[in-house]
Amino acid sequence: MSKSLRIAFVHAHPDDESLWSGALTAHLVAAGHEVSLLTATRGERGDVVPGELSSLAGTPELERHRIGELARAVASLGFARHAFLGDPPVGSGRRYRDSGMTWLRPGLAGPAADAEPDSLCSRPLDDVVADLAAWLRHVDADLVVSYDDDGGYGHPDHVRMHRACVAAARLLGVGFAAVVHAPGEGVRWFDLDNLAPRVEEALRHHASQLTVNGDGTLTHSGGQTEPVVTSVGLRPDAVARPVVEGL
């Protein structure tokens, strides 16, 4: 597709933009598209990698630190614009906090029992959709990209943003595509292993949350080790299909 598109990635927390879709972002930027990022929360409830940053856990300083980490990752990946959900002057001024999660079993998360009243999952979905739609209008998005309907592994904030993105895209008449990490029917697959160094560079900016091991893997603050994601797919809705097929 020769036309330059305005592509809006929507993620729940700082570091998701690098973990889930960092290589795809770098690929689309290099192809000449205008790629923007909206982050719903500031990751206030994230665990912290053991070590020199451990004292940040559970403190207001963690939020400020993660905002700085995110700003550096955003610059590294080449996003044209970034905002937090609800922030003025585009948004309503509502603030959405990290809802937290609990592990139901290995690989599957569920809601935390102590989500705060102003958390992303506690606020009315209509509020989330209104703030999201306002930002999508502001960046004049041709395509909205976020999580699949299960949030990848069940994180309630990821699931919430999937639902909000689908609703906002339908409201505005633009296409929605979900990031998936396995090929399948209807999936536009991108083999982007060559961009692994670029993704690892972005991930290293999120040192409070994860450690890049240098062997193609990363270790999360909770101790789980997994491969660095590079090759990914997009599963588009009907409106987005011709746009995604042309990427």
How would you portray this structure in words?
Keywords: Zinc. This is GlcNAc-PI de-N-acetylase. Pfam families: PIG-L. With 247 residues, the chain is α/β, with parallel strands linked by helices. It has a single domain (6-246), classed as LmbE-like (Rossmann fold, 3-Layer(aba) Sandwich), CATH 3.40.50.10320. It contains seven helices and twelve strands. It has a seven-stranded mixed beta sheet, sandwiched between helices. A three-stranded antiparallel beta sheet has the order 9-10-11, with helices on one face. Strands 4-5 form a two-stranded antiparallel ribbon. The longest helix is centred in the N-terminal third of the chain and has 18 residues, at 60-77. The protein is globular, with a radius of gyration of 17 Å. The N and C termini lie close together (6 Å).
The proportion of residues forming helix, as a percent range, comes to 25-40%
CATH architecture: 3-Layer(aba) Sandwich
Classification by helices and strands: alpha/beta
The overall strand count is 12
Task: Write down the Rg.
Answer: 17 Å
CATH homologous superfamily annotation: LmbE-like
Q: Briefly note the CATH topology name.
A: Rossmann fold
User: What is the 3D form?
Assistant: globular
Q: Which range does the strand content fall in?
A: 15-25%
CATH class: Alpha Beta
Q: Count of helices?
A: 7
